[in-house]
Structures are given as structure tokens and as C-alpha cells.
Specification:
Elements (H helix, E strand, L loop, with lengths): L9 H34 L4 H30 L3 H19 L4 H29 L5 H26 L3 H21 L12 H7 L3 H22 L1 H9 L4 H30 L3 H20 L3 H28 L7 H29 L2 H19 L8
Length: about 400
């Protein structure tokens, strides 16, 4: 499989960004508001954290398997379009199941379908960067990939607040996901992808290469930081900060976060292409994320939470500006592009599994939110410590 050297056009970038926004809305609308509200309604105040942790952990575990499998299937089929469509259908079905869920079991099944399904279009969209985008544009398009995810967080959260928590919110998100992906399906022309259908995919999984492994680890750590910030944000605001309308404040902080993430993400992607440097943006991201999460730990008041959201958004934007450029640069070979990007995406989904497992006992028994967010800051510093080992990049 070879990537074309022809630059992608602005209309393709717009359609690509819209599709990624839709996928992210399908994920983060539920995570931010709909799932926490549903867990509280089904389990009550005393069991909401445990139920939310169980649901998100099961979904994330399924996601760990689904993403690389979608990638392998995409490489072997030689096409991204069927994976995009099939995964979207399954994900939308899961959102509709959640809309009518009136038991813990149904809630788990619905979120399981969402996680398995939406990994299909996510795998396809990640592979399209390797297929369609030349190296000199990967910072810009990779930043759009990341910023679109952030915008999707706002869209999903806004839909949940505007349309209503519970069933109406899930239905609104279920409509948004495919609607935002249609344009890309209509205009995307796939390059000829030729696979020998050998077991090269599996050998790449066993021997991914040291530079890919370091890039994977850094991605995992910084995604874990982001997941730990988000997983109990709803409860942090209501129980620790003491706001009376947690859903509205989640939306406000999410908008602040996204605004700065979008600015730093897009500007960083363009600058990283122009300067031909990636590592400095990762280093800046780790430092800024550590500062923002430390503020959440030390000063749990609304004004400081807003400042922390600015820092977390700026730090996350600085990272997503170069994330896809870094990962696609260290792929072992072009024949396993979607497969290995599926493995790379595990570094984004595994934190969803670990975040509630880590956060739940800390919040309930081991020091509460100050301990949780100080640990989160330490994880960001650990990512910074790993960066010098990533020698393949400037």
C-alpha cells in the first residue's frame, strides 16, 4: 500500500473533520453526561460510581479488541469504506439500545455495541491519513483529526444538555453520527490498496518496532491523563466543587477546554509541518497537562476549575496537533497501516478501561479527588520522561 503524494484538498479536510466529529460525539456525549446520569438513575447515589466504572470498563475492554480487528479487516479487504459504514451502523444501534435502557444489563449491552461499532469508522479514519495524506500535510490533517474529536466532545455534550438527558439525548447523538459522516463517504476516493493477504499483519503485531512502542506508550500515558480528567468530571463538580447544576458546568468547562484545544491543536499542527518538528509539541503538552490537573487537585473551586480547563485544553491541543503525525511516521510498514493504527488506537481506548478502575477506589477510599488529580499530573510528567527515547522524530 502506498500513499499518494498529491495534497488533499480543503473540501476533503472539511468532510474528514465532520466525520470524526460525528464519531467523537457518539463516544463522548454518552461519557460526559448521558452515561453518568443513567448510572445515577439506575443505581442511585451510593452505587453510581461503581456502575459507571463497570459499564465503561466493559465497553473499553471490547474496544481494545475491536479496533485492531477492524484494522486487520480493512487491510485485508483493501478498502476503508465498508468498515466505516458497518461500524457506524453497529454504533448507532448501540446508542438506540441505550436510549431505551431501563436496566443495568441493557445499559451494558448498549455501550458495548457503541464501543465495538464506533471503532470501525475510527479505524477507517485513522488509516485514511496514511492512505491519502502526504507527509508534508500530516501535521495539519492529524491536528484536524484530533481537534475534530474535541469538537465532537462539545457536540455530544451540547446535544445531551439541549435535547435532554436519557432517551432523547441518545437519539439525538444517534442521528448526528451518520449525518456527519455522509459527506466523506460521497467525496472520498480511495487509492488502490493492494494486500497480499498474508500473515504479515500478525507478524507486525508481534514485532512493532522500538520507536512505534515508545510512541504508543507516550500516546497511552497522555490519553490516560485525559481520560482521568473526564471520567468523573460530572461527579467532581457536584460532589467536590459543590455546583448545583453539574451538567451545565460540564458543558461550560467542555466548551472552554475545546476552545483552547482547538486553537492550540490547529495552530500546532500547521506549525509542526512548517518547522518539521514534532517532539517539542509533545513536551509542551505534557507540562501544561500536569499543571492543569494539579490545579484541579489543589484548589477545587469553580474559578480555578475554569483555569484548569484552559490549561488541560491547551495541553491536549498541543498533543493532538502532532499525535497522528508521530504515529504514522513510526509505522513499521505500509502494508499493515490500518492494522498497526488499530494497535495504536488501543493507546487511546485502553485508558477508558483503566481510568474508572483507577479512579473509583481513589475517589471513594484513597484520598478522593485531590489524590486522583495529583496522580494524573504525575502520569503527564512520566510521558515527558519517555519522550527522549523517541529518537525517530525531531
Amino acid at each position: 500500500m502506498t500513499v499518494t503524494e498529491a495534497p488533499v484538498r480543503p473540501r476533503w479536510m472539511v468532510a474528514y473533520s465532520l466525520a470524526m466529529i460525528g464519531v467523537a460525539a457518539g463516544w463522548f456525549g454518552p461519557i460526559q453526561i448521558l452515561l453518568p446520569e443513567q448510572a445515577a438513575r439506575l443505581a442511585g447515589a451510593d452505587g453510581k460510581e461503581s456502575l459507571l466504572a463497570l459499564v465503561t470498563a466493559i465497553g473499553a475492554a471490547a474496544s481494545l479488541v475491536a479496533n485492531p480487528l477492524w484494522g486487520v479487516l480493512s487491510d485485508r479487504m483493501g478498502s476503508r469504506r465498508p468498515i466505516f459504514v458497518a461500524g457506524t451502523v453497529v454504533g448507532v444501534a448501540g446508542l438506540l439500545v441505550l436510549a431505551g435502557a431501563d436496566s443495568r444489563t441493557t445499559m451494558i449491552i448498549g455501550w458495548l455495541l457503541v464501543q465495538v461499532g464506533l471503532n470501525g469508522p475510527l479505524a477507517a479514519l485513522a488509516a485514511m491519513i496514511g492512505d491519502r495524506v502526504p507527509e508534508r500535510q500530516r501535521g495539519t490533517v492529524g491536528a484536524l483529526f484530533g481537534v475534530a474529536q474535541i469538537v465532537g466532545v462539545v457536540l455530544g455534550t451540547a446535544l445531551a444538555v439541549a435535547v435532554g438527558q436519557g432517551g432523547p439525548g441518545y437519539v439525538a447523538v444517534a442521528v448526528a453520527v451518520p449525518a456527519l459522516g455522509v459527506a466523506l463517504l460521497l467525496i472520498n476516493r480511495e487509492p488502490a490498496l493492494v494486500s497480499d493477504k498474508s500473515d504479515v499483519h500478525w507478524s507486525a503485531l508481534v514485532r512493532p518496532g522500538a520507536q512505534f512502542a515508545w510512541a504508543w506508550l507516550i500516546r497511552f500515558l497522555l490519553n490516560l491523563v485525559n481520560a482521568l480528567v473526564l471520567v468523573y468530571l460530572f461527579y467532581y463538580l457536584s460532589d467536590e466543587v459543590g455546583v448545583t447544576d453539574a451538567a451545565t458546568w460540564v458543558l461550560i468547562l467542555t466548551v472552554v477546554n475545546v476552545l483552547f484545544a482547538g486553537i492550540f491543536g490547529f495552530a500546532g499542527g500547521v506549525l509542526s509541518d512548517r518547522w518539521e518538528r514534532r517532539k517539542i509539541f509533545v513536551a509542551a503538552a505534557a507540562v501544561i497537562l500536569a499543571a492543569g490537573t494539579a490545579l484541579l487537585a489543589l484548589v477545587p473551586v469553580v474559578a480555578v476549575a475554569i483555569v484548569a480547563s484552559v490549561l488541560v485544553g491547551a495541553g491536549w491541543g498541543a498533543y493532538v496537533a502532532v499525535d497522528m503525525a508521530v504515529i504514522t511516521h513510526v509505522l513499521p510498514d505500509a502494508e499493515t497501516r490500518a492494522t498497526m493504527l488499530g494497535v495504536a488506537n488501543i493507546a487511546g481506548t485502553l485508558p477508558q478501561l483503566l481510568a474508572p478502575v483507577i479512579a473509583a477506589p481513589i475517589v471513594t477510599r484513597l484520598g478522593g479527588y485531590p489524590t486522583l488529580y495529583l496522580l494524573t499530573a504525575a502520569i503527564a510528567v512520566l510521558a515527558l520522561a519517555c519522550l527522549p527515547r523517541l529518537k525517530a522524530l525531531s
